[in-house]
Structures are given as structure tokens and as C-alpha cells.
Amino acid sequence: MSPPPSPASLAAAAFRHPVRVYWEDTDAGGIVFYANYLKFFERARTEWLRSLGIGQQALRDSTGGMFVVSETSVRYHRPARLDDQLVVSASLHTGGRASLVIAQQAWLLDGQGQPMELLCEGTIRIGWVDAASLRPTRIPSNILEALS
């Protein structure tokens, strides 16, 4: 994994989604349970696609296809805690005909809502499959165009 970018480079990220840490997100120690970062990443990817006019249910209904996660790589730097405000980014890292790699980060925000500390980063590979058979197929061209 590459070295963490600065908060300034986050400003150039393709998409940012705010997240507040709730009690249900934490473990017995009061820190975000590690698997919940994947939930935060999922929400950010979904909202990123929605911001591009790509609603996943509508896409499935109209094309018969859907995205599925096929691989994750996550690195944890520092824990988030109850009531922290975060921003989660999503940007296209690499794209192919049947899968995409999305780069994602979760940053702790300061009191003015500015990113101040990288908490978690990772890459998520999502593949396009036929919803009925779950077999890989080509990503529709309009989706690839919207992401580029």
C-alpha cells in the first residue's frame, strides 16, 4: 500500500461522504470495530455512484447486473471513537472491463470539519456480475463513462 496522502490530497478525491461514529459502530473498548470500516467504505461507494446518477437497484432492474465485492485490502492506522466525525473518500484507482478497484480512506475530522488524521485506508475490488447467475460479465459502458 502506498504512503498515506496528506489532508490536502483528500480534497482532490473524487467523492467524500460524512460519517459519525455511533455506539453501534464501537466495540467494548469504545473504538470502532475494525469490520465497520468496510461498512463505512460501502456507504461511501454507494453514495459516490448515486452522485453520478447510478442507483444500484435501478441499475440491476434495467441491466440485470450488479456489483459484488471480490477483494479487499485494508490498513488500519489509528482508531476512531464514539461520536467522532469522519469523512470517507472513494475514487477510482483502476478500471477494467469487468471489475474496478476503488481506493478508499477514512479520515478523522477536526472541530472545523477539516480532515486531520488518516485512520484507515484500503482498496476494494468490485466486479460486475449477472444478477441471476452471479457470473462475471462486462460492466455496461455508460457506467464506465460516468466513472471516467
Automatic annotation (TrEMBL):
Residues 29-111 form the Thioesterase domain. Pfam families: 4HBT (PF03061). The keyword Hydrolase applies. It comes from the Bacteria. Keywords: Hydrolase. PANTHER family: 4-HYDROXYBENZOYL-COA THIOESTERASE FAMILY MEMBER, ACYL-COA THIOESTER HYDROLASE YBGC. Belongs to the 4-hydroxybenzoyl-CoA thioesterase family. NCBIfam families: thio_ybgC (TIGR02799), YbgC/FadM family acyl-CoA thioesterase (TIGR00051). This is Tol-pal system-associated acyl-CoA thioesterase.
